[in-house]
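Review form for a predicted model. The reviewer records the input and the model, then writes brief findings.
Reviewer: anonymous (R2)
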Amino acid sequence: MIVLAWLTVLAPGGAEAASTPPPLHLGYSDWPGWVAWQVAIDKGWLTQAGLDVKFEWFDYSASMEAFAAGKLDGDCVTNGDALVMGAGGARNVAVLVTDFSNGNDMIVARPGIHSLKDLKGKKVGIEIGLVEHLLLLDGLKKSSMTQDDVTLINSKTNETPQVLASGQVDAIGAWQPNSGLAIKALPGAHPVYTSAQSPGLIYDVLVVNPATLASRRADYIKLIKVWDHVVGYINDPKTQDDAVQIMATRVGLSPAQYKQILAGTHLIDVAEAKKVLVKAEGLGSLYGSSQIADDFNVHNAVYKQPQKIDGYIEPSLTLAQP
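Model under review:
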Protein backbone atom coordinates (compact mmCIF):
# COMPACT_ATOMS: atom_id res chain seq x y z
CA MET A 1 0.00 0.00 0.00
CA ILE A 2 1.28 3.44 -0.93
CA VAL A 3 0.81 6.07 1.74
CA LEU A 4 1.50 9.67 0.92
CA ALA A 5 2.19 11.97 3.85
CA TRP A 6 4.14 15.07 4.63
CA LEU A 7 6.69 15.57 7.35
CA THR A 8 6.15 18.55 9.62
CA VAL A 9 9.40 20.34 10.15
CA LEU A 10 9.50 22.94 12.87
CA ALA A 11 10.51 26.25 11.39
CA PRO A 12 11.85 29.39 13.06
CA GLY A 13 8.46 31.00 12.47
CA GLY A 14 6.82 28.68 15.01
CA ALA A 15 3.80 26.37 14.99
CA GLU A 16 1.92 28.15 12.20
CA ALA A 17 4.74 27.58 9.69
CA ALA A 18 5.10 23.99 10.83
CA SER A 19 1.43 23.19 10.23
CA THR A 20 1.30 24.44 6.64
CA PRO A 21 0.88 21.44 4.33
CA PRO A 22 2.77 21.22 1.03
CA PRO A 23 0.99 21.75 -2.31
CA LEU A 24 -1.21 18.99 -3.61
CA HIS A 25 0.64 17.35 -6.50
CA LEU A 26 -1.73 16.19 -9.24
CA GLY A 27 -0.85 14.62 -12.58
CA TYR A 28 -2.57 15.45 -15.87
CA SER A 29 -1.90 14.61 -19.51
CA ASP A 30 -2.98 15.07 -23.12
CA TRP A 31 -6.70 14.30 -23.03
CA PRO A 32 -9.23 17.14 -23.45
CA GLY A 33 -11.01 16.34 -20.19
CA TRP A 34 -7.72 16.82 -18.35
CA VAL A 35 -6.15 19.54 -20.48
CA ALA A 36 -9.21 21.51 -19.35
CA TRP A 37 -7.45 22.03 -16.01
CA GLN A 38 -5.10 24.39 -17.87
CA VAL A 39 -7.93 26.92 -17.98
CA ALA A 40 -8.08 27.01 -14.18
CA ILE A 41 -4.29 27.16 -13.98
CA ASP A 42 -3.89 30.03 -16.43
CA LYS A 43 -6.85 31.97 -15.07
CA GLY A 44 -5.59 31.77 -11.51
CA TRP A 45 -8.81 30.16 -10.28
CA LEU A 46 -7.00 27.64 -8.07
CA THR A 47 -5.29 30.37 -6.05
CA GLN A 48 -8.52 32.38 -5.91
CA ALA A 49 -10.21 29.34 -4.39
CA GLY A 50 -7.59 29.24 -1.65
CA LEU A 51 -5.91 26.15 -3.08
CA ASP A 52 -2.22 25.32 -3.19
CA VAL A 53 -2.16 22.82 -6.05
CA LYS A 54 0.64 21.91 -8.42
CA PHE A 55 -0.50 20.23 -11.62
CA GLU A 56 2.32 18.26 -13.25
CA TRP A 57 2.25 17.45 -16.97
CA PHE A 58 3.03 13.86 -18.02
CA ASP A 59 2.70 11.37 -20.80
CA TYR A 60 -0.31 9.34 -19.69
CA SER A 61 1.39 6.08 -18.71
CA ALA A 62 4.18 8.01 -16.96
CA SER A 63 1.61 9.78 -14.79
CA MET A 64 0.27 6.43 -13.59
CA GLU A 65 3.80 5.26 -12.82
CA ALA A 66 4.45 8.44 -10.83
CA PHE A 67 1.24 7.96 -8.85
CA ALA A 68 2.08 4.32 -8.15
CA ALA A 69 5.53 5.38 -6.95
CA GLY A 70 3.99 7.81 -4.45
CA LYS A 71 5.22 10.91 -6.29
CA LEU A 72 1.71 12.29 -6.84
CA ASP A 73 -1.24 12.85 -4.52
CA GLY A 74 -3.65 12.33 -7.40
CA ASP A 75 -3.81 11.63 -11.10
CA CYS A 76 -6.20 11.93 -14.03
CA VAL A 77 -6.97 8.48 -15.47
CA THR A 78 -9.76 6.42 -17.03
CA ASN A 79 -11.99 4.54 -14.64
CA GLY A 80 -10.71 1.24 -16.03
CA ASP A 81 -7.07 2.20 -15.54
CA ALA A 82 -7.84 3.24 -11.96
CA LEU A 83 -8.78 -0.40 -11.34
CA VAL A 84 -5.57 -1.60 -12.99
CA MET A 85 -3.49 0.66 -10.74
CA GLY A 86 -5.34 -0.47 -7.65
CA ALA A 87 -5.03 -4.15 -8.52
CA GLY A 88 -1.29 -3.57 -8.87
CA GLY A 89 -1.04 -2.12 -5.37
CA ALA A 90 -1.45 1.62 -6.01
CA ARG A 91 -4.56 2.25 -3.94
CA ASN A 92 -6.70 5.06 -5.27
CA VAL A 93 -10.18 6.49 -5.05
CA ALA A 94 -12.02 8.65 -7.60
CA VAL A 95 -13.20 11.94 -6.11
CA LEU A 96 -14.23 13.64 -9.36
CA VAL A 97 -15.68 12.56 -12.73
CA THR A 98 -14.29 14.90 -15.39
CA ASP A 99 -15.83 13.56 -18.60
CA PHE A 100 -16.64 10.61 -20.78
CA SER A 101 -15.26 9.90 -24.22
CA ASN A 102 -17.81 10.90 -26.85
CA GLY A 103 -16.16 9.99 -30.12
CA ASN A 104 -12.43 10.53 -29.57
CA ASP A 105 -11.84 6.79 -29.06
CA MET A 106 -12.21 5.05 -32.41
CA ILE A 107 -11.92 1.85 -34.37
CA VAL A 108 -10.48 3.19 -37.65
CA ALA A 109 -10.63 1.00 -40.78
CA ARG A 110 -8.91 1.08 -44.14
CA PRO A 111 -10.89 2.02 -47.29
CA GLY A 112 -13.29 -0.71 -48.31
CA ILE A 113 -14.23 -1.64 -44.75
CA HIS A 114 -17.61 -0.05 -44.11
CA SER A 115 -18.63 -1.54 -40.78
CA LEU A 116 -17.43 -3.78 -37.97
CA LYS A 117 -19.15 -6.70 -39.71
CA ASP A 118 -16.75 -6.19 -42.63
CA LEU A 119 -13.87 -6.93 -40.25
CA LYS A 120 -14.83 -10.59 -39.94
CA GLY A 121 -11.71 -12.64 -40.64
CA LYS A 122 -9.59 -9.46 -40.77
CA LYS A 123 -6.72 -8.11 -38.64
CA VAL A 124 -7.15 -5.35 -36.08
CA GLY A 125 -4.16 -3.52 -34.58
CA ILE A 126 -4.88 -2.72 -30.95
CA GLU A 127 -3.08 -2.43 -27.64
CA ILE A 128 -4.46 -5.57 -26.03
CA GLY A 129 -5.88 -5.06 -22.57
CA LEU A 130 -6.29 -1.29 -22.83
CA VAL A 131 -9.39 0.75 -23.31
CA GLU A 132 -9.61 0.47 -27.14
CA HIS A 133 -9.71 -3.31 -26.74
CA LEU A 134 -12.78 -2.81 -24.55
CA LEU A 135 -14.28 -0.46 -27.15
CA LEU A 136 -13.73 -3.04 -29.91
CA LEU A 137 -15.38 -5.83 -27.91
CA ASP A 138 -18.33 -3.56 -27.17
CA GLY A 139 -18.78 -2.82 -30.87
CA LEU A 140 -18.37 -6.45 -31.90
CA LYS A 141 -21.02 -7.52 -29.40
CA LYS A 142 -23.45 -4.97 -30.84
CA SER A 143 -22.69 -6.39 -34.29
CA SER A 144 -23.47 -9.94 -33.10
CA MET A 145 -19.78 -10.83 -33.31
CA THR A 146 -17.07 -11.86 -30.86
CA GLN A 147 -13.32 -11.39 -30.59
CA ASP A 148 -12.92 -14.76 -32.31
CA ASP A 149 -14.28 -13.20 -35.50
CA VAL A 150 -11.16 -11.01 -35.87
CA THR A 151 -7.41 -11.43 -35.42
CA LEU A 152 -5.91 -9.03 -32.91
CA ILE A 153 -2.44 -7.69 -33.61
CA ASN A 154 -0.96 -6.21 -30.43
CA SER A 155 0.12 -2.67 -31.37
CA LYS A 156 1.12 0.27 -29.18
CA THR A 157 -1.49 2.98 -29.44
CA ASN A 158 0.97 5.67 -30.53
CA GLU A 159 2.16 3.39 -33.35
CA THR A 160 -1.29 2.52 -34.72
CA PRO A 161 -1.31 5.25 -37.43
CA GLN A 162 1.81 3.73 -39.02
CA VAL A 163 0.53 0.17 -38.53
CA LEU A 164 -2.69 0.97 -40.42
CA ALA A 165 -0.95 2.95 -43.17
CA SER A 166 1.57 0.14 -43.75
CA GLY A 167 -1.17 -2.34 -44.62
CA GLN A 168 -0.28 -4.74 -41.80
CA VAL A 169 -3.85 -4.59 -40.50
CA ASP A 170 -7.32 -3.76 -41.76
CA ALA A 171 -8.25 -1.56 -38.80
CA ILE A 172 -6.83 -0.12 -35.62
CA GLY A 173 -8.12 1.09 -32.28
CA ALA A 174 -6.83 4.39 -30.88
CA TRP A 175 -7.82 7.56 -29.07
CA GLN A 176 -7.20 11.15 -30.16
CA PRO A 177 -4.82 12.41 -31.36
CA ASN A 178 -3.66 8.97 -32.61
CA SER A 179 -7.04 8.06 -34.10
CA GLY A 180 -7.05 11.32 -36.07
CA LEU A 181 -3.48 10.77 -37.20
CA ALA A 182 -4.43 7.29 -38.44
CA ILE A 183 -7.18 8.79 -40.58
CA LYS A 184 -4.73 11.32 -42.04
CA ALA A 185 -1.99 8.74 -42.60
CA LEU A 186 -4.11 6.57 -44.90
CA PRO A 187 -6.35 8.39 -47.40
CA GLY A 188 -9.86 7.04 -47.17
CA ALA A 189 -9.42 5.58 -43.69
CA HIS A 190 -12.42 6.26 -41.49
CA PRO A 191 -14.01 5.33 -38.14
CA VAL A 192 -16.36 2.35 -38.15
CA TYR A 193 -17.08 2.51 -34.40
CA THR A 194 -16.46 5.21 -31.82
CA SER A 195 -17.07 5.90 -28.16
CA ALA A 196 -19.94 8.18 -29.20
CA GLN A 197 -21.86 4.97 -29.92
CA SER A 198 -21.30 3.80 -26.36
CA PRO A 199 -21.37 6.89 -24.11
CA GLY A 200 -20.16 6.09 -20.62
CA LEU A 201 -18.04 3.11 -21.62
CA ILE A 202 -14.96 5.24 -20.93
CA TYR A 203 -15.24 7.68 -18.02
CA ASP A 204 -12.31 9.85 -16.98
CA VAL A 205 -11.74 10.64 -13.34
CA LEU A 206 -9.42 12.30 -10.85
CA VAL A 207 -8.18 9.63 -8.47
CA VAL A 208 -6.33 10.40 -5.26
CA ASN A 209 -4.42 8.46 -2.67
CA PRO A 210 -6.74 7.53 0.24
CA ALA A 211 -4.32 9.09 2.72
CA THR A 212 -4.53 12.52 1.09
CA LEU A 213 -8.30 12.19 0.79
CA ALA A 214 -8.48 11.79 4.55
CA SER A 215 -6.14 14.70 5.29
CA ARG A 216 -7.07 17.13 2.49
CA ARG A 217 -10.78 16.51 2.01
CA ALA A 218 -11.67 20.22 2.25
CA ASP A 219 -9.15 21.03 -0.50
CA TYR A 220 -10.62 18.43 -2.84
CA ILE A 221 -14.11 19.83 -2.26
CA LYS A 222 -12.80 23.26 -3.29
CA LEU A 223 -11.10 21.68 -6.33
CA ILE A 224 -14.36 20.16 -7.50
CA LYS A 225 -16.00 23.60 -7.32
CA VAL A 226 -13.21 24.98 -9.51
CA TRP A 227 -13.78 22.13 -11.97
CA ASP A 228 -17.44 23.10 -12.26
CA HIS A 229 -16.33 26.64 -13.12
CA VAL A 230 -13.96 25.26 -15.78
CA VAL A 231 -16.68 23.21 -17.47
CA GLY A 232 -19.03 26.19 -17.52
CA TYR A 233 -16.33 28.41 -19.03
CA ILE A 234 -15.51 25.90 -21.77
CA ASN A 235 -19.14 25.21 -22.67
CA ASP A 236 -20.27 28.87 -22.65
CA PRO A 237 -20.25 30.17 -26.26
CA LYS A 238 -19.12 33.57 -24.95
CA THR A 239 -15.93 32.20 -23.38
CA GLN A 240 -15.32 28.97 -25.27
CA ASP A 241 -12.87 30.49 -27.76
CA ASP A 242 -10.69 31.76 -24.93
CA ALA A 243 -10.78 28.36 -23.24
CA VAL A 244 -9.95 26.52 -26.46
CA GLN A 245 -7.02 28.88 -27.09
CA ILE A 246 -5.59 28.03 -23.65
CA MET A 247 -6.04 24.29 -24.16
CA ALA A 248 -4.66 24.30 -27.70
CA THR A 249 -1.57 26.20 -26.58
CA ARG A 250 -0.93 23.60 -23.86
CA VAL A 251 -0.73 20.76 -26.45
CA GLY A 252 0.75 22.66 -29.41
CA LEU A 253 -2.26 22.61 -31.73
CA SER A 254 -4.21 25.39 -33.41
CA PRO A 255 -7.51 26.42 -31.79
CA ALA A 256 -9.37 25.14 -34.87
CA GLN A 257 -7.73 21.72 -34.56
CA TYR A 258 -8.38 21.55 -30.85
CA LYS A 259 -12.02 22.52 -31.14
CA GLN A 260 -12.61 19.43 -33.28
CA ILE A 261 -10.94 17.17 -30.72
CA LEU A 262 -12.81 18.80 -27.85
CA ALA A 263 -16.09 17.91 -29.54
CA GLY A 264 -15.33 14.23 -28.96
CA THR A 265 -15.18 14.68 -25.18
CA HIS A 266 -18.28 15.18 -23.06
CA LEU A 267 -17.25 17.29 -20.09
CA ILE A 268 -19.22 16.61 -16.91
CA ASP A 269 -20.22 19.41 -14.55
CA VAL A 270 -21.23 18.92 -10.92
CA ALA A 271 -24.96 18.67 -11.66
CA GLU A 272 -24.43 15.84 -14.14
CA ALA A 273 -21.79 14.18 -11.97
CA LYS A 274 -24.30 13.81 -9.16
CA LYS A 275 -26.38 11.63 -11.51
CA VAL A 276 -23.39 9.65 -12.79
CA LEU A 277 -22.37 8.88 -9.20
CA VAL A 278 -25.64 7.11 -8.39
CA LYS A 279 -25.09 3.36 -7.99
CA ALA A 280 -26.66 1.55 -10.93
CA GLU A 281 -25.91 -1.03 -13.58
CA GLY A 282 -24.98 0.09 -17.07
CA LEU A 283 -23.00 2.91 -18.61
CA GLY A 284 -25.04 5.77 -17.19
CA SER A 285 -23.38 5.19 -13.83
CA LEU A 286 -19.67 5.33 -12.98
CA TYR A 287 -20.28 2.26 -10.84
CA GLY A 288 -21.89 0.30 -13.67
CA SER A 289 -19.24 1.37 -16.18
CA SER A 290 -16.44 0.43 -13.79
CA GLN A 291 -17.99 -2.99 -13.22
CA ILE A 292 -17.94 -3.58 -16.97
CA ALA A 293 -14.29 -2.49 -17.08
CA ASP A 294 -13.46 -4.80 -14.18
CA ASP A 295 -15.10 -7.77 -15.90
CA PHE A 296 -13.09 -6.96 -19.04
CA ASN A 297 -9.82 -6.66 -17.14
CA VAL A 298 -10.27 -9.99 -15.36
CA HIS A 299 -11.41 -11.80 -18.51
CA ASN A 300 -8.36 -10.54 -20.41
CA ALA A 301 -5.97 -11.32 -17.53
CA VAL A 302 -5.02 -7.68 -17.02
CA TYR A 303 -5.24 -8.69 -13.36
CA LYS A 304 -6.52 -11.86 -11.68
CA GLN A 305 -8.91 -10.88 -8.91
CA PRO A 306 -12.10 -8.82 -9.44
CA GLN A 307 -11.95 -5.46 -7.72
CA LYS A 308 -14.49 -4.09 -5.25
CA ILE A 309 -15.87 -1.18 -7.23
CA ASP A 310 -17.36 0.71 -4.28
CA GLY A 311 -13.90 1.14 -2.77
CA TYR A 312 -12.70 3.00 -5.87
CA ILE A 313 -15.36 5.72 -5.86
CA GLU A 314 -16.02 8.44 -3.27
CA PRO A 315 -19.14 10.38 -4.30
CA SER A 316 -19.58 12.45 -1.15
CA LEU A 317 -17.29 15.31 -2.21
CA THR A 318 -19.32 15.94 -5.35
CA LEU A 319 -22.59 15.49 -3.49
CA ALA A 320 -21.39 18.13 -1.01
CA GLN A 321 -21.42 20.75 -3.78
CA PRO A 322 -24.34 23.21 -3.85
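Findings: Residues 175 and 256 are 19 Å apart (CA to CA).
Further findings: The radius of gyration is 20 Å.
Recommendation: see findings above.
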